[in-house]
Amino acid sequence: MIASNSPRGLRAIALFKAVKVLMVFIAALMLCSMMASDVHAVAIWVVDLLHLHPDWRFTQVILEKAAGVTNANIWFIIGTGFGYTVIRGAEAYGLWRGLRWAEWFTLSSGGLYIPLELHSMSHGITWVNVGALLLSIAITGYVGWVLYHSRRRRRVEEGTG
Questions:
Q1: Count of other CB atoms within 10 angstroms of residue 96
Q2: How far apart are the C-alpha atoms of 54 and 66, rounded to whole Å?
Q3: Which of 9, 17, 20, 35 could hold 92 in an S-S bridge, CB 3.0 to 4.6 Å?
Q4: What residues does each domain of the chain span?
């Protein structure tokens, strides 16, 4: 069922999700171009570009992880990224068009993220994971509210509520 006009909040969520899809798609394309590259050399270039101090633990971890990356790892990440763009792109389209399945998909997938974000906070609270948790709660709560009120409205229109 296509709603005559999707609520502005759902369109804002759709736009947010579409931006994330675009970012993941671009990142996957960039990884495709790295297939023939030395990932460790690219990591060194990024560390230099960002002026990260070579003695910082964070910098050392990045360089160590980059040294162990294989083409199979890159293909897995690329495939996962493209799969994400298809699924989340369809979700963004559905939300923009006011399709009920997209609302339910957003509600259920957003609800799955909340416990994961709470778990990540058990390892340390940062502004990023607090922001991600609050955003997930806000999106999930809003979509749940939209679904609840659309169901109530349908029942009143049918005369059963």
A1: 17
A2: 14
A3: 17
A4: 1-97, 99-161
